[in-house]
Amino acid sequence: MSEKSVIRKAGIVAGAFALSAMLVGSALACTSLMVGKNATVDGSTIVSHTVDGWYDHRMQIVPGQKWEDGAMAPVYKNLCYQTMPTKPLNKVGEIPQVSETYTYFNTGYPSMNEHKLMMAEATWGGREESYCDSGWMTIEMLQVFALQRAKTARDAIVVMGALAEKYGYGDVGEGLWIADGNEVWLFEITGPGPLWNSELGIPGAVWAAARIPDDHVSVIANRSRIGKLDLKDKDNYMASSNVISFAKDMGWWKEGEEFLFNKAYMPAEDYDYAPICSRREWRALSLLAPSLNLSPTAAQYPLSVKPDKKVSAQDIMAINRDHYQGTPYDLSKTKAGGPFESPVFYRANKDQRPDGTKDVYWERNISIFRCSYSHVAQTWADLPDSVGGIMWFGLDQPLTTVYVPVFAGVTKVPSSWSDGYRHKMDRNSAFWAFNFVSNWATLKWNYMIKDIAAERSRFEGQFFAEVPAIKATAVEMHKKDPASAVEFLTNYSYNNMLAVEKAWWELGDTLVGKYCDGYVMTDEGAQESAGYPTWWLEDVEYGKTSNPADPK
User: Fold this and answer.
1) How many C-beta atoms surround the C-beta of residue 544 within 10 A?
2) How many domains are there within the chain?
3) Range of the domain at 481
4) Does the pLDDT value for residue 100 go beyond 70?
5) CB of 262 within 8 A of CB of 292?
6) Cα separation, 504 vs 436, whole angstroms
7) Are residues 345 and 419 in the same domain?
8) pTM
């Protein structure tokens, strides 16, 4: 039975209603980058992810193990929302377990395994007609299974594609950077429509994957990025068997036209100029390859480009922290930024927006206040697994966080990083230390961000200075006793996480005292008035109601 005879556009209404609520925030969600091994300063592959919304911020290490014949693995929905009381975990079924699973690091979107396989997610929504509520698999569930079962990016794609096709994909359109030490792939997936079920004998998902050249960089910012597919080139492309036929049956592609995955499976308004997404694509690519002189208002950008110079993990961290500094899109330098040049802009509800702006948003910065966590993950092919993978992990928004190195061989993290509430302040949770500092800084941003940046640089400077020696020591230990190397790396990451957490609670207290009541407290204990910039006082008509020269 063909997809066309089962999934007709006339029968899409249920799917459209189910999906509409899920798509509301998809374009406001994550930004993810990649760097190939020949484009980095140290030969690593890099993927990064800013997880922008209320997602599970906790880092939990799920040990690998061997399983008996007949063992089953549970399948859940809402896996990425486990700190959100209004979205409880929902078990939808079980699938056969494999004989052995690998240890993986479970965050809102699972990110790393013991074999230094790395992932970074970005939602792109897709067409309402593609959504399939009966599909078991979500993107984060596919990530779990891939990290438990695969050692390479290619194998991870095979695992995820097969499971999604067999059990159905019941999530919105998603993209994943997947990196091992040699390759970085982009995997994109969408649903088979609302009428699919497992008894039909047709694929329960539509997906495609493209390998990025080793000397290139790329970005996903809530739009599908895979365009052309050369399915004869199996070294660089993979896809589900229905990737073209489903689009044809649905009327999204016509015979004789060039087939572009993103054009077929995204709504036209997302494929065309969509500044809430495309501006971030432009910004990231322009920072990495300024010589291209890309237009900030283009509808589409190249999937990947060659950077002007070799890229470091610090460069990617800087992009994660970007809010369009030095461009017309930096709203902190406009009236919107207020007297203290804040880059934080809360969402304006539709009924609050002025006429003519009902369907537009603030400029969507890469670093955003509602980020749950972010990471910059590096993998080296020539190092032992436990040593050759580092996830630089930061809680809350990138601009005010510290990226702490967590090695792939780590076996435990502090409970304050693996546990914690999200719906109420919790001083036993590291997340709240960073969230508090970020929120407090909005009171006097251009003052407090200097204190925050200095402390941030102190820690990250220390980590980047130490890590080469830490890696070298661990490699030598691994040659003699792999377990001792794992213990060494675990202690290093564990202690640094505690140190940063402690420092950030102390920084929060310092900022409260230093900037109390609108003043700036000096080291000598004197108060100095920060006041306001003249332009802002003029703009708010300072003194108008109390000017004796104009009693009216």
Assistant:
1) 9
2) 2
3) 389-504
4) yes
5) no
6) 9
7) no
8) 0.95
